[in-house]
Fold this sequence. Notes:
The structure is a single chain. This protein has a domain at about 40-90. The chain contains four helices and six strands, in the order ββαααββββα. The protein has helices at about 35-40, 45-50, 50-60, 125-145, and strands spanning about 5-15, 20-25, 75, 85, 90-100, 105-110. The longest helix is centred in the C-terminal third of the chain and has 22 residues, at about 125-145. It starts with a strand and ends in a 6-residue tail after the last helix.
Amino acid sequence: GTVKVKELMRVDRFSHVMHLTSVVEGELADGLDALDAFRACFPAGTVSGAPKIRAMERIAELEEDQRGPYAGAVGYLGFDGQMDTCITIRTATITKSAQLGDRGAQAVCRIEAGAGIVADSDPQAEEEETRAKAKALLRAIEIANGGTLA
Length: 150
């Protein structure tokens, strides 16, 4: 096959977390396009688990709320067939809520972040990782709101 790992488990450091990043490249077979590649890769195993189909069935059984944009993708598809996407692994979804008295319409912001739970995970460490990931989003909201979360 044409799939090659160009870079394996590079450590990328960000303000609140570190990620292991790998670069994987390949050529599509004749007759396939970027959307075929996208369909084959999503949902990403990073946020669903494996084997993918059974993992998605278990997610549907166990999670009370639908994920919405969380664990999906954001990106673009150009007229030239080029595509670039990223997984929405930390999201802030803002929706309008009902009128609240004389304060007018209020917005509700839902923050979603997660950690990779595996057989030997430490639940406390996974919770700390999830909180660290969400902290960057909360800080951005705080800054946008003039320094407060209220």
